[in-house]
Amino acid sequence: MYSRYARRYARLVTMPTSAPTPAATAASPEPKSEANPLAAFADVTASHSTLRRFLHGLPGVDPVGLEARAASLGTRSIKTTAKAYAIDLAISMVDLTTLEGADTPGKVRALGAKAVHPDPTDRTTPATAAVCVYPDMVATAKEAVAGSTVKVASVATAFPAGRAPLAVKLADVREAVAAGADEIDMVIDRGAFLAGDYMKVHDEITAVKDACGTSARLKVIFETGELSTYDNIRRASWLGMMAGADFIKTSTGKVAVNATPANTLLMLEAVRDFRAATGVQVGVKPAGGIRTTKDAVKFLVLVNETAGEDWLDNHWFRFGASSLLNDLLMQRQKLATGRYSGPDYVTVD
Fold it and tell me: Is 79 one of the catalytic residues?
């Protein structure tokens, strides 16, 4: 039995098989506030008890059905012309990433140059969406991509564990934004979430969002591999979006289980339904484990068939990856020339 909060929003979170029509959105029983589209959820996030009742009142996820649909969509094939378009689109959606203790200014500059011109021999190759680095490398990355469309993203909030006091996390964010970060990738406190302290997680996200100001978009990382259940992933998705996330992101890439078609499908359903409820569009970023062009195309099919064409743009969908870009470039050249490149065609990041 749903709680009274879940009943109120049940029509909007039941995972319909197609995106809601504009007419259905307009017929929503909850009027949207022009000043604050999230105001419809103000009563839900007013206290720990109301937030918990809403999240635990969301419809349960059918794991078998979810995985079967993800697997079915993953079998779709696309032809040569569509494949060429998909490869260029996927390249433009990559957040080219280096998050190692051994990162140097030289490595970050090289990564920035690759993001701007992924294939120096073919200037028709699109630039990537962003480069993603630690806060202390933001200024270097910003300089490397200056004059291009490439954004600089920075992980923050004690990435990847998120185990730090809130004041430390906010200082991390402010330092990255002050250095020029266009996007902040924060990690939620999974310990608090798994303990059921949803209000703490919500308040941390809103505080980080405030620290981003108006100059940086916020990606909220759930670390889905540690959330254990699909129900938790759905709850985390709605929690992050109600707190003001601009993107919801699967993983840090630092654990055994990262992005999968099933958990990404679930998050795509969440952003679709959230837009129907509020009019607010939120992006999705699967990260970790996506290494081949074939993988990337499967995820693009998921986007198109679940959330719709509005998300087929790097403003709303990203791949958190590095090795993926090399395979995309090799497959792109194969389509253009009919042959695969040698192993030295692409740089090793």
Answer: no
